[in-house]
Design goal:
- The complex is a heterodimer of chains A (596) and B (696).
- Chain A is of the alpha/beta class and 596 residues long.
- Chain A has five domains: 103 residues, Glutaredoxin (3-Layer(aba) Sandwich); 211 residues, NADH-ubiquinone oxidoreductase 51kDa subunit (Rossmann fold, 3-Layer(aba) Sandwich); 84 residues, Ubiquitin-like (UB roll); 89 residues, NADH-ubiquinone oxidoreductase 51kDa subunit, iron-sulphur binding domain (de novo design (two linked rop proteins), Up-down Bundle); 57 residues, Alpha-Beta Plaits, CATH 3.30.70.
- Chain A is built from 22 helices and 18 strands.
- In chain A, the strands form five sheets. Chain A has a five-stranded mixed β-sheet, sandwiched between helices. In chain A, strands 11-10-14-12-13 form a five-stranded mixed β-sheet. Chain A has a four-stranded mixed β-sheet with strand order 2-1-3-4.
- In chain A, strand 12 and strand 13 form a beta hairpin.
- In chain A, helix 6 packs parallel to helix 10 and helix 10 packs across helix 13.
- The longest helix of chain A has 19 residues.
- Chain B is an alpha/beta fold.
- Chain B has five domains: 76 residues, Ubiquitin-like (UB roll) (Roll); 133 residues, Fumarate Reductase Iron-sulfur Protein, Chain B, domain 2, CATH 1.10.1060.10; 162 residues, FAD/NAD(P)-binding domain; 143 residues, FAD/NAD(P)-binding domain (3-Layer(bba) Sandwich), CATH 3.50.50.60; 99 residues, Alpha-Beta Plaits.
- Chain B is 27% helix and 17% strand.
- Chain B contains 21 helices and 26 strands.
- Chain B has a five-stranded mixed β-sheet with strand order 2-1-5-3-4, with helices on both faces.
- In chain B, strand 13, helix 15 and strand 14 form a beta-alpha-beta unit.
- The longest helix of chain B has 19 residues.
- Classes of the chains: A alpha/beta (596), B alpha/beta (696).
- The interface between A and B is medium-sized, with 32 and 36 residues.
């Protein structure tokens, strides 16, 4: 637990997917082994992601009556030392701590501008322990709801909070609940959309892995508000840890009576089923998601009828995403006014972003709405990882768009982002520097949507394929000037004649880059030149005869033996053989590899 | 009581009951909104997006009319510019991923768009008269074209990948000869006079074809020609050994027999003008004046005595007034005119006939078989040779020539000839014939408002055939360039122009009602082996020909003797019946034509051709599937079987029998409901033979 006045020493390892990927499993095992040898009783716990993915594996040490100490970038050797020095001898290894160590400033910069509501417990509690959740005030909001608030009270509070759908659409959550409540039916459903699929986005996964009870609690509250007794969580099977922790959480909540019949003795019954999706991106679209739960192929259907009227199994259904539900208990506990005190006129509260790409401090951040993109990138993220200037930021994943550096002063706000050709989306924020080719970026996202199209609508199925082919022509240097017109014609066509959001927004990455970076497209077409020197078909590598010292560093790593040379002699690069992989330029310490 | 909804569709007030779709609401006022995925038996699906309409009050966004319910106060436009652009793009995208043949490749390669599989089918079934009638819907000159055509259809024939193309052209001749020899040749019925009259200048294939089809619309037709007999280039440009003048004359009789009035020895431009014809009350004029001029060789001495043009020589031969050619003659060129001139010279007793061509015989525009016949008849080929200068040397001509080699392919795809320096040589002959191309003699157009390109071709709108002068249309050799100047092209233009002239005289928009739209599986090299599954090897029937010794006769007896009936029937049975049996009822094709879809704009990766014929009753050509899902839905919603499903994601999404099985291994019981709802020819009921072709 997070209080420091416990009876004995305690170690907590960051054990979200990011931590595990960074080596937390080895660190955990090492600590476990060391503790076994120790003879002293020390509790070893896990927690989820606290957002500082760039510092994982993170290990926290609690010594009774002393402040918590957090260590970052821990490996097995460091773990050993921490046990020895800190746990046994009570001497913290200051140089590795967040509080005093080399990255204490960075940690402060990363965390202080953030406001954690949806992520309030992430990285602080053990996600596999309902007791820890309860100890931090968990399920109090549910109790308050069921024992003291009417359905309309709950809905009115959510409306007053200004909470909007965090899955991307941004529809006012309270309004949605109101519509579902208004639909008369013997049966209604709550669905939690946990089918997060945008490349580079991991907000929902992190919440599910780190604080699953917050989502469950939000769902029960929503169920009460609309009059539903059944719920589904639709989570992608590619999130095994999230699923494992959800199953644990559901069972714990059932045992404690927060899910089931007669919750808090009020007679309200609510059950939650977990449905694993097979990983089709389109199943994040609500009508496709419901079809998938029903056992049909995940293909979107025409709306109206909206789910609030006719949803899952033809019954009124309310669908919200993970982050939206995670906000709900906090709003009930702290009051809608407090929530609405954050944000802008139309976008209230906070938003979680997955900060990725060429960013120094990547990870999960939660900021109040209205913060400028520049602040997020520069203050929280610490600027680009390369040190080069930011060129653009991609927001909203494959449905979103690129905002160029000139407009990064705009604030995080549903309407504002749309105005500039991007969208809030579910929260992916990819930072790009000068070395990123915007045509290539557009191609990357379009390739994703083309692969993930369900194939139903003509424009989405064939139109995105044709756009992709045109982009491939352009990045191969064989595009024609007419290609830009064709891209725009197709883009507009797909946008206006596709059934679901996937199709309607699929052209956005292309259209937004065409809007701001048309000159890059034109350089590829008219001059067969990639201004970022990243499109392989349009660049050649050569060796700078003055700079090359003949150090041989590039000779061996070249996978196709295109570089030859002797020690202390200028090396030769065979451009016929060269596959333009760029390994040589990465290993060269003398700026002797030139890319033209 | 059901609630009544009031809305406006195309600014017309419509009342429907609540829950009615916009598509059904539009039907109430007689507006048919196109759709591919919607079927009255099925729930709305909204996948094809052809049925989009514009919703004026919601910012002009497009909504699917099949699945959007009519609402009070709605304002809908069903054929605004935005709607039509979206539909056109949608069709183009669907068709860009449609791997099948609407029309057989031979038919689409034919400039006259002749329904070839249909007439071959009739011949193979022993019904030449039905076959002839099918041919005559496109080619009035069946006997003539069946003899002289360079056969672009046979070049496209899929059988080329097996033992060789079907003898499409000669089979046309076969049925036409039976008809002409019957004593009662086929003359189509013509409706009563409309009171409209058309003047046609030129009684060649373009002019008479236009007249033939205009008569079938009931219009009065007068054809003016400067010669004393009709036929144009067929009469004066093709020698008797290929097309006997008797045959041509009888065929023309059957064409003129529709009621065409031909006025001979009238010189357009001198005796009559467009202005005068209009004054005489002609509602439209069709210029089919041909291209009887010759392209200059641009070598010095080409105006010397005994240096003739090919068209000039053939014209004189046809008028029984052959020029003096001496004992040796060099013909320059590689087209049909050059070959005809050379073979004529050989028949006129010239001992040494040479054909000089700057490329090799493989690049010659003339049909291979003509070249073979010519060589058999003793004409010598001088390939890779071009003349540089001609000099007079007493009674002889001294021709300085140069050898050539082949370079890279030019714009036409043929390898371009390049002079080999220092390879000049001199050859002597008595006469020379230049046959390197035709030219238009535009003098007759003086005084009209008809504009021409600088090289002489008349400027016409390729779709309407209108020239720059009001009410004046043009077609045939005078309105096409270079290699396009073949009789069958002129005939095709004549038929299409007739339709336009008819629309024009009736004050209707000049939009054709004849759907010639097609997509194709691919070029010959792209046809998968599976396409030929089950076809047995049958060698192409040999055309009986006159013995060589009998051919070299100044009376120019016909060389090709024609097929006998058993050869013809067997040869016709070699047809692979490419082309879609649903071509006339396919909704996709009908819309493609209506919206003038250009699928080649979006050329790219495409589904592969594939035929699943493993089921007893059903056959499935997945290349033609447009994923409307009607089959999947009818099988589930109506039949309750669910034997068909969608598989995959993205562009490669497909409709397949369940579990991706072959159709024969699926749970399909052959009820054919899917066949009924399929808007294309993807799912079909299996036929005993693939032969249900109808002439279009």
């Amino acid at each position: 637990m997070t209080n420091t006045n416990g009876f004995h020493k305690r170690i907590v390892v960051g054990y979200g997917s990011c931590g595990i990927a960074a080596g937390a499993r080895d660190v955990y095992n090492e600590i476990q082994k060391s503790l076994a040898d120790l003879g002293e009783e020390v509790t070893l716990d896990i927690t989820g992601c606290n957002g500082s993915c760039h510092f994982e594996p993170i290990v926290e040490v609690y010594i009774p009556n002393q402040p918590k100490v957090s260590y970052g970038l821990v490996d097995t050797a460091k773990a050993k030392k921490i046990i020895e020095s800190h746990v046994v001898n009570n001497v913290p290894v200051d140089e590795w701590t967040f509080e005093k160590g080399e990255f204490s400033e960075e940690t402060k910069a990363f965390t202080s501008p953030q406001v954690k509501i949806a992520l309030r417990h992430c990285g602080f509690i053990d996600p596999e322990s309902i007791d820890e959740y309860i100890a931090t005030g968990g399920y109090e909001a549910l109790k308050k709801t069921l024992t003291g608030l009417s359905q309309d009270d709950v809905i009115n509070q959510i409306i007053a909070s200004g909470l909007r759908g965090r899955g991307g659409g941004g529809f006012p959550t309270g309004k949605k609940w109101q519509l579902a409540k208004a639909s008369a039916s013997d049966e209604k459903y709550i669905i939690c959309n946990a089918d997060e699929g945008d490349p580079g986005a991991f907000m929902d996964r992190s919440v599910l892995e780190s604080d699953p009870h917050a989502v469950l609690e939000g769902m029960v509250i929503a169920g009460y508000a609309i009059g539903a007794n059944h719920a589904y969580i639709y989570a992608r099977a590619e999130y095994p840890l999230a699923i494992k922790r959800l199953i644990i959480a559901i069972n714990q909540a059932k045992e404690k009576g927060f899910i089931g019949k007669n919750i808090f003795g009020t007679g309200f019954a609510f059950e939650i089923k977990l449905k694993e999706g097979a990983g089709a991106f389109v199943c994040g679209e609500e009508t496709a998601l419901m079809a998938s739960i029903e056992g049909e192929r995940g293909m979107p259907k025409k709306r109206p009828p909206y789910p609030a009227v006719s949803g899952l199994f033809g019954k009124p259904t309310n669908i919200n995403n993970v982050e939206t539900f995670a906000n709900v208990p906090w709003i009930i506990t702290n009051g809608p006014e407090k929530y609405a005190s954050y944000g802008t006129e139309g976008s209230k509260g906070t938003k979680v972003f997955a900060l990725a790409g060429k960013i120094k401090r990547g990870g999960l951040v939660e900021v109040p709405m209205g913060m400028s993109i520049t602040d997020i990138i520069e203050k929280i993220g610490g600027g680009t990882s390369s040190g080069k200037p930011v060129k653009a930021v991609q927001l909203g994943g494959p449905s979103g768009g690129c905002i160029p550096k000139e407009y990064l002063g705009i604030s995080v706000d549903y309407e504002e982002l749309k105005k500039y050709g991007a969208m809030m989306g579910s929260g992916g924020m990819v930072v790009m520097d000068e070395d990123d080719c915007m045509v290539d970026i557009a191609k990357f996202f379009l390739k994703f949507t083309q692969n993930e199209s369900c194939g139903k609508c003509t424009f989405c199925r064939i139109g995105t394929k044709r756009m992709l082919e045109i982009l491939e022509r352009i990045t191969s240097g064989i595009g024609t000037e007419a290609d830009i017109d064709l891209l725009e014609e197709l883009g507009q066509g797909i946008r206006s004649a596709s059934l679901c959001g996937l199709g309607q927004t699929a052209p956005n990455p292309v259209l937004s880059t065409l809007r701001y970076f048309r000159h890059e497209y034109e350089a590829h077409i008219k001059e067969a030149r990639c201004p970022s020197k990243s499109c392989k078909a349009l660049i050649t590598y050569s060796i700078h005869t003055t700079n090359c010292t003949g150090c041989m560093a590039c000779v061996k790593p070249c996978p196709v033996q295109a570089i030859t040379g002797k020690k202390n002699e200028v090396h030769l690069l065979d451009i016929e053989r060269c596959t333009r992989c760029g390994v040589c330029s990465q290993v060269c310490k003398f700026d002797a590899i030139m890319v033209e | 009581m059901e609630k009544i909804i009031n809305l406006k569709i195309n600014n017309i007030d419509v009342q429907v009951t609540e829950g009615t779709s916009i598509l059904d609401a539009a039907k109430k006022i007689g507006v048919e909104i196109p759709t591919l995925c919607h079927h009255e038996k099925l729930k709305p699906f909204s996948s094809c997006f052809i049925c989009v309409v514009e919703s004026v009050k919601t910012g002009g966004n497009l909504v699917t009319s099949c699945s959007t319910a009519a609402n009070d106060g709605m304002e809908i436009l069903t054929d605004s510019l935005k709607v039509n652009q979206s539909r056109k793009l949608c069709l183009e995208l669907l068709l860009s991923d449609h791997s099948g043949d609407c029309l057989a490749p031979c038919q689409s390669a034919c400039p006259a768009n002749t329904p070839i599989p249909a007439y071959l089918d009739a011949i193979s079934k022993g019904d030449p008269s039905k076959a002839l009638k099918i041919v005559k819907t496109r080619i009035p000159f069946a006997a003539s074209i069946g003899r002289v055509c360079p056969r672009p259809c046979e070049t496209a024939c899929r059988r080329n990948n097996l033992e060789g193309a079907a003898a499409i052209c000669s089979l046309k001749r076969y049925v036409a000869d039976i008809d002409l020899e019957s004593g009662d040749p086929y003359i189509p019925e013509c409706p009563p006079d409309t009171g409209k009259k058309v003047a046609i200048i030129g009684a060649g294939p373009a002019g008479l074809s236009a007249g033939y089809y205009l008569r079938q619309k009931g219009h009065a037709v007068t054809v003016f020609d400067r010669h004393e007999r009709a036929g144009g280039m067929l009469a004066f440009g093709i020698p008797d050994f290929r097309l006997p003048r008797n045959t041509l004359a009888r065929e023309i009789e059957s064409i003129v027999g529709t009621g065409i009035d031909v006025k001979y020895n009238v010189d357009f431009g001198t005796d009559i003008t467009t202005k005068e014809l209009k004054k005489q009350g002609y509602d439209a004029i069709y210029l089919a004046i041909g291209a009887q001029g010759a392209t200059a060789m641009r070598v010095s001495g080409e105006n010397l005595k005994r240096v003739y043009s090919g068209v000039q020589v053939l014209d004189h031969v046809a008028s029984d007034d052959p020029p003096y050619l001496g004992d040796s003659c060099i013909i320059v060129g590689g087209g049909s005119t050059a070959i005809d001139a050379a073979r004529s010279a050989a028949r006129l007793g010239v001992k040494d006939v040479y054909v000089m061509y700057r490329r090799t015989r493989h690049e010659m525009p003339a049909h291979e078989e003509e070249v073979d016949d010519m060589v058999d008849e003793g004409v010598k080929l001088m390939e890779l040779t071009a003349p540089l200068a001609i000099e007079s040397d007493g009674e002889k001509l001294k021709v300085t020539s140069i050898k050539m080699r082949l370079g890279d392919p030019d714009a036409s795809g043929r390898r371009s000839p390049i002079k080999i320096p220092g390879s000049e040589f001199v050859i002597t002959c008595d006469s020379m014939i230049s046959a390197i191309g035709q030219a238009i003699d535009g003098i007759c157009l003086k005084g009209t408002k008809v504009e021409t390109y600088e090289w002489g071709t008349i400027k016409v709108n390729p779709k309407t055939f209108l020239t720059t002068e009001e009410a004046v249309f043009a077609g045939g050799d005078c309105a096409v360039d270079g290699d396009g100047r073949i009789a069958v092209e002129a005939i095709g233009m004549g038929r299409r122009a007739a339709e336009m002239i008819d629309l024009y005289m009736n004050g209707k928009p000049l939009k054709s009602a004849v759907n010639e739209f097609t997509v194709q599986i691919g070029s010959l090299g792209e046809i998968p082996p599976g396409f030929y599954k089950g076809s047995t090897k049958i060698e192409r029937a040999k055309m009986p020909k006159l013995q060589i010794v009998d051919r070299l006769n100044p009376k120019f007896p016909e060389v090709e003797l024609g097929y006998c009936s058993s050869d013809a029937a067997l040869e016709a049975s070699r047809c692979l019946h490419c082309g879609c049996t649903e071509q006339d009822i396919c909704t996709l094709r009908a819309y493609a034509f209506e919206y003038d879809a250009q699928p080649q704009r979006w050329k790219g990766g495409r589904r592969e051709w594939d035929l699943d014929d493993t089921h007893e009753v059903i056959q499935y050509e997945s290349g033609k599937c447009i994923l409307c899902g009607a089959c999947v839905r009818v099988c589930e919603e109506v039949k309750g079987l669910g034997a068909i499903c969608f598989t995959g994601r993205g562009f490669p999404t497909r409709v397949r029998p369940n579990f991706g099985n072959e159709w024969g291994l699926s749970t399909c019981d052959g009820c054919k409901m899917c066949v009924e709802v399929c808007p294309t020819g993807a799912i079909l009921e299996k036929l005993e033979d693939g032969t249900q072709y109808q002439a279009t």
